[in-house]
Design a protein that fits this description.
By secondary structure, the chain is an alpha+beta fold. It contains twelve helices and six strands. Among the domains are: 66 residues, no CATH class; 65 residues, Muramoyl-pentapeptide Carboxypeptidase, domain 1; 47 residues, PGBD-like superfamily/PGBD (Muramoyl-pentapeptide Carboxypeptidase, domain 1), CATH 1.10.101.10; 122 residues, endopeptidase domain like (from Nostoc punctiforme) (endopeptidase fold (from Nostoc punctiforme), Alpha-Beta Complex). It has a six-stranded antiparallel sheet. The N and C termini lie far apart (156 Å). The N terminus is likely disordered.
Length: 465
């Protein structure tokens, strides 16, 4: 009996041991979950609430306090519903009304800002800006639009003005497919320097590009085939190098034009031809006398008495008048003869007053500022190349005049581009605080009294005589 009892006891222990092994893992997991839920989770939730309150106060967000119950849900609601601080952000898009539509004929203060910007980018000759949107301003806007591959309208609309006043605006330059007076003048300069031998047609084609690249190579510039500021400044300066193979052809000396018309030689009077003698007048025939009186019968008709014929009057031959010698009309000379002196320079310049300003022209019907100076000097016999305002200011053979108060009548006067040290305008000193020039803003050749703009931007003068 004892043996059986011991056997049963052993069996029970064995079963209990197997039961413990079977449920050990779930039991440990249950105990761990209870321990975590009771001892660990509440402190963590408390710290989370404290952390949320800390960051809320640090960001100055007026969020409501977190309640103790269901803190996680309240935290989500708080972060999404709390008002965020207001930030001031600048808006880059400007309203359409920010820019006034500017076109030819408009008078507006904003035209002055437009002209100043065009001058700063070299699309317009520097001059005292005005409120008038004239033809020269429209042409400058067209050049700006051409360089930026826009439709050339000459109208400063919103898109054009936004680009013009932005950092992306390009400076004036000439490149392939460009056309206009400025291209024709560029071709003329390249021809005068020996680089170009084709037609000066005002179109920037392959021949112009090749000539320009050769000029850049000889003059140690970057060879781009684009006439940028650096290239143009050198081309229109007295320091441009001629082509190495260029031999200038001497211009023929013009024959002096006689002031008096030559005395005409007397023409011979034609000898009058002898007139034929008049035909003799026939004598009238005598009427025969009747021998006997015959009474007419009724049947017979009286014979008519012949009328005497009239003696014809002899015709007089007209006396030939001697032909008058006609004085040959002398051919008009192209230009009156001037002496190279101050009075001649002023006289020629005064004759151009009122003629229109057109960019890159040098007369005789229109001028830009340097073109007017070139034309006047040429008319009085002063030999010079066609230079720009900056180029004329660098002619060292002419005496440099420092200070506006030291200028004399006939001196060339130069002005800086506003805010720079680059020469952008030239005129002729007229005396009495005035100068004569082709004005881009006035649109014609005028005489201007020196004001604030002129005295602020005056550079120096050059005395030719």
């Amino acid at each position: 009996m004892l043996y059986n009892c011991s056997m049963d006891t052993n069996n029970d222990k064995k079963k209990f041991s197997e039961f413990i092994k079977r449920f050990k893992t779930p039991l440990i997991a249950t105990v761990s979950a209870v321990t975590v839920g009771v001892l660990i989770v509440p402190p963590i939730l408390g710290m989370t609430a404290m952390g949320n309150n800390f960051f809320t106060s640090a960001l100055n967000i007026n969020a409501p306090a977190l309640p103790d119950a269901n803190p996680t849900a309240n935290a989500v609601v708080t972060l999404t519903s709390a008002p965020l601080p207001t930030l001031e952000v600048s808006v880059s898009k400007e309203p359409t009304s920010a820019y006034t539509l500017l076109q030819q004929g408009v008078e507006d203060d904003s035209v002055m800002l437009l002209q100043e910007r065009l001058m700063a980018l070299d699309f317009m000759d520097s001059d005292e800006p005005s409120t008038s949107y004239g033809a020269a301003t429209a042409a400058a806007v067209s050049r700006f639009q051409n360089v930026h591959h826009m439709v050339e309208t000459g109208i400063a609309d919103e898109i054009t003005q936004k680009l013009l006043f932005s950092e992306n605006a390009k400076t004036y330059s000439l490149s392939k497919t460009s056309k206009g007076n400025d291209i024709r003048l560029l071709q003329q300069q390249l021809a005068d320097l020996g680089y170009y031998a084709e037609k000066q047609n005002g179109y920037f084609g392959a021949a112009t590009e090749a000539a320009l690249m050769e000029f850049q190579r000889v003059n140690a510039l970057e060879v781009t085939g684009i006439a940028d500021n650096e290239t143009l400044d050198l081309i229109y300066s007295p320091f441009a190098k001629f082509h190495p193979d260029y031999v200038p052809t001497p211009s023929p000396t013009p024959k002096p034009t006689p002031t008096k018309s030559p005395t005409p030689r007397p023409t011979k009077s034609p000898t009058p031809k002898p007139t034929k003698s008049p035909t003799p007048t026939p004598k009238p025939t005598k009427t025969p006398k009747a021998t006997a009186t015959v009474k007419p019968t009724a049947s017979s008709k009286p014979t008519s008495t012949p009328k005497p014929t009239k003696t014809p009057t002899p015709t007089k031959s007209p006396t030939p008048k001697p032909t008058e010698a006609k004085t040959p009309t002398p051919k008009p000379t192209e230009a009156p003869s001037y002496s190279p002196n101050v009075s001649s320079l002023i006289k020629v310049a005064e004759a151009q007053l009122g003629k229109p300003y057109i960019y890159s022209t040098e007369g005789p019907d229109s001028f830009d500022c340097s073109g007017l100076v070139y034309y006047c000097l040429k008319q009085i016999g002063v030999s010079t190349r066609r230079l720009s305002a900056s180029g004329f200011s660098q002619v060292e053979s002419w005496t440099k005049v420092v200070g506006m108060d030291n200028l004399e009548k006939g001196d060339l006067i130069f002005f800086y581009d506003p805010g720079t040290k680059r020469i952008g305008h030239v005129g002729i000193w007229y005396g009495n605080n005035k100068y004569l020039h082709a004005s881009s803003t006035a649109g014609k050749v005028i005489i201007t009294t020196c004001g604030e703009w002129a005295r602020t931007n005056f550079a120096w003068g050059r005395r030719i005589f």
